[in-house]
Amino acid sequence: MADAKFTVVRKELVQAEATPAVARRLEDGTLFLDFGRAAFGTLIVPLPAGTGRVSIVVHLGEKLGADGLIDRTPPGTVRYRRIEQVLAPGSASCRIVIPPDPRNTGRAAIRMPDTIGEVYPFRYAEIEAAAEIDPGAVRQVCVLYPFDDNAASFVSSDSGLNTVWELCKHSIKATTFCGVYVDGDRERIPYEGDAYINQLGHYGVDQEYALARYTHEYLIQYPTWPTEWQLHSVLMAWDDYLYTGETRSLETFYDDLCAKTLIDLAREDGLISTANPELCTKEFERRLNLHHDRYIVDHGLRDLVDWPPGSFTEGGQGERDGHDMRPVNTVVNAFHYRALVLMARMAGVLGRAEDRQRFSGQAAKVRETINRLLFDPDRGVYVDGEGASHASLHSNMFLLAFDAVPPERIGSVAAFVKSRGMACSVYGAQHLLDALYRCGEAGHALDLLTATHNRSWHHMIASGGTITWEAWDWSYKNNLDWNHAWGAAPANILMRRLMGVRPLEPGFRQVLIQPQPASLRQAAAKVPTPRGPVHVAFENDPGKSFHLTVMIPRDMTARLGLPCGGGMVAELWVDGVRRDGRLAGQTLWVEGLGPGKHVLKLE
């Protein structure tokens, strides 16, 4: 990547060793090992002297079969591999060499460094004819980007929610093995929609910002083809600035980010469409850096929304909730609106007043047109595009998530969104949960986070997954993999939304702490920031009392929002002193708390 430019230097990948959590010998002499959780890496097997071995046969896999052994014919692209390796004479141990897979080592894939070699995702290993091998000396070698396991924590009164947190935290950690966010093991290609969820998740589980920025800048220069993925780059740029407070990346890639808003596709009323050949030209696509030699795009931009019908699923309905794919697409224009809003803010940060005015004015025009042209007042919902009558979950949840819905319409739109359940993919879940928390529907969000049906994180766990999946189930995407971090939305949602910790000013000069517990009785979290961790703990008796304890790092001030809905009538106490807060809706706001420990009570 000598021709690429980056404003950040990544750390070197590291290798960590794990011992088996479970080991047992089978009747035929095979040694079965369970390392507890899947990771990307390889296996080191000790070889006692005098065994006379000339080769070794191992099986690596992510999933168990009905017989309790590694599933040798797993569904989708869940991983299983048999490896036979010739041993060097007199070897005291053997590091299994993973043969390269043509699917994930091609031109578009991120390649592993030669100093580390190929890796494979596995939780289980079987070693044939292993009577002389000490199971306690076998090692799973895990390859990953440096990770601080103690940087973040979450624990609550709901044990199932705690398990979901641990799944998602490990998913973010384990999938850093390439040193760039990739889409899983099947392709190992960075994608913007994946990387956005990865970025927010990484911010939630570690005090680490370089890897997210590196991936973001890589994708600006080597983008992929979905229309919304171009717009995700603007979202990623804003969050990088908001979390770090640094402007270097904005300055370096400013022109690229302006193009990524897709403002050049706008018609007179502000809406955009990739179906207009007069505007969506090859020259326009070149301004997006779309035509490059790493990921060959021969069809130009295409609207995605979510997994399409029949995509990798025989006869399947996809994950679009029946979305009517019109040339002027509501979901695409929701992203376009959000990108314009954020681009106006970034132009302001960099002192580009004229651009700030241009993007801000265009955002207002797009918002007005969406609400005039794409809203069905009889049903109180947004339709899927110009000329459509169908209303999908996606059209409505993205507009809610991106603050494009006027206050008087939020009630009907939120009611429709709730009625659709989890009728989206694991990618869509990120934006659905953001939308629900944004419009005060924390109870429904908590229900989705703790659900046990087959569109849930508990389904992944109950099925044996220890890294989040690419899809909810094989029935929704039959080539899914079991190592996809874009399924790990709770890694950021629990920190940003349920515990409510988000930067109000760049670099966390000011932090927002606004827990939305719904019915959750207790929770405590350690949330990483560039200035040190923010500690938040609450005890919640819905409608009666709410106790909040926070620890604010130095050089940071906080705005706190306490839930006081459900008819709660309570006095506010801050550090033992009776105070008046500012009531707005069902939240009581307390401003300007400085560093140190603070105890707030509504009772």
Descriptive notes:
This protein is an alpha+beta fold and 603 residues long. The chain is globular, with a radius of gyration of 25 Å. Among the domains are: 14-144, Jelly Rolls (Sandwich); 222-415, Glycosyltransferase, CATH 1.50.10.10; 506-602, Maltose phosphorylase, domain 3 (Sandwich). The model has no long low-confidence stretch (mean pLDDT 95). The strands form four sheets. Strands 1, 2, 3, 4, 5, 6, 7 and 8 form an eight-stranded antiparallel sheet that branches. A seven-stranded antiparallel sheet has the order 9-14-15-16-22-18-19. The chain has 15 helices and 22 strands.
Assembly type of the shown chains?
A: single chain
Mean pLDDT: 95
Q: What percent of residues are in strands?
A: 15-25%
Regions with little confidence, pLDDT below 50 for 5+ residues = none
- Computed CA radius of gyration, to the nearest angstrom: 25 Å
Describe the main β-sheet briefly: 8 strands, antiparallel
CA-to-CA gap between the ends? 59 Å
Helix content: 25-40%
Number of β-strand runs: 22
Number of helices: 15
Q: Label the CATH architecture of the domain at 222-415.
A: Alpha/alpha barrel
Shape: globular
CATH class of the domain at 222-415: Mainly Alpha
At the third CATH level, what is the topology name of the domain at 222-415?
Answer: Glycosyltransferase
Q: What attributes does this structure have?
A:
single chain; 603 residues; alpha+beta; Jelly Rolls; Glycosyltransferase; Maltose phosphorylase, domain 3; 8-stranded antiparallel β-sheet; 7-stranded antiparallel β-sheet
